[in-house]
Amino acid sequence: MKKITKLGAVSALSLIIGATAAFAEDIKIAFIDPLSGPFASTGTNGLHQFEHAVDFMVNDEGGVLDGQTMEVVGFDNKISPKESLIQLQVAIDQGIRYIVQGNSSGVANALTEAIDKHNRRNPDSRVLFLNYAAVDPALTNDKCNFWHFRFDANADIKMDALTDVIAADDSIKKVYIIGQDYSFGKAVSAAANKMLGEKSPDMEIVGDELHPIGKVKDFTPYARKVVASGADAVITGNWGSDMLGLGKSIIENGFEGPIYTYYAAGSGMTAAFGDSAKDRIRLISQGAINPIGSDRARDAYNSFLERHPDGNIDQSRIYNTIGMLAEAIKEAGTADDVVAVASALESMEYESMWGGKLFMRPQDHQLIQDMHIGVHTDEDIEFPYDSSTFGVKTESTIEMASMDSPTTCEMKRP
Predict the structure, then answer these.
(1) How many CB atoms lie within 10 A of CB 162?
(2) Is the peptide bond before 81 cis (omega within 30 degrees of 0)?
(3) Fewer CB atoms < 10 Å away: N or C end of the chain?
């Protein structure tokens, strides 16, 4: 039998403690989103914001628990659900227990189903899905599960706020709805039709169509149909290159009314739209940028610009995601037990530095928060986007939007 000397035992113990401490210092978060292809700029900008958020909100503040730091690891999913599942398994195999994703509800639907199945089969390597931008309402309704938390408002919550504004505008009699042909685009169309019908029965929907996602090179045919329809306003859930292409084409083909959007700022779009979209493009979002929500938010934005002079914080919810995750880990007393962390996230109330209170609704894991409707402009802009003079200025705010909205979620807890 091998004899261990006292010195040897101490050395072995030191190695174990050292290894444990090294492991404890690093909480890894897998970012699974497009880092190549037509939506690469959107994904890359999101990754930069996550990297900055963990430093600004956690690492630079001494970490969590006993000084554990956070690290974001990027995985390129090429906006493909199939590739996303491959990258998810790679992340799990690397011991990563926190997954963030936001670009494409089609991807989010694939991930949430795969994570639910993995966690049921592998209780020793469970993971949490922190959805920061995929807003298909089904994800917190019939497809909800304990492992999924959404930090953005879903498409119905956003449309509820947008249609309040549209219905109150007496100059808008006809509306054209256009979006990407997948679950999110369909959800936007369904919500717009339903809510406008309820709030303004006399308003006419003069167009309602979907186009292939990420494949249209020339939006001129779509733009000409919008103009020919006689629409007074356009509603679109397009994002990334599809938003830029559609928006520019609609404006260039002579449409003069407001374009109500979900994702029409940052990632190069604001600079590309420039003066042509001034007072034309309107955006529903969370987190106040102009005017900024707090001095701490101002510090965060300036800190980000020091790291990325040509970038911008156009997804303040990313910082809310990291801030709430850090608080949940502190409350759970561990980053390894994701059930405890998830339980701490449920019903959490959190004061966002971007302004307003956040509440993680326990029955469906949908974050409830203030929603802001802003306009593309170069007036009264403290923080412009894309190194341009233009940004998004808040025009109106709906506090704790859709707090009591119904959900069909039947949450099953472990």
Answers:
(1) 25
(2) no
(3) N
Distance from CA of residue 150 to its chain's centroid? Answer: 8
pLDDT tens, residue by residue, 279-334: 999 999 999 899 999 999 999 999 999 999 988 999 999 999 999 999 999 999 99
Please indicate, yes or no, whether residues 190 and 214 belong to a single structural domain of this protein.
Answer: yes
32 pLDDT band (50/70/90 cuts)?
A: very high
Instruction: Work out the widest C-alpha separation in the chain, in whole angstroms.
Output: 90
Cβ 180 vs Cβ 209: under 8 Å:
no
Q: Which amino acid would we find at residue 355?
A: G
**What's the domain range around 272?**
156-287+370-398
Burial (CB count within 10 angstroms: exposed 0-12, middle 13-18, buried 19+), residue 190:
middle
Cβ atoms of 98 and 325 within 8 Å: the answer is yes
| Domain tally, the chain | 2
Q: How far is CA 82 from the centre of its chain?
A: 20
CA dihedral 381, 383, 389, 392 (to 10 degrees): -60
CA dihedral defined by 311, 54, 362, 136, rounded to 10 degrees? 30
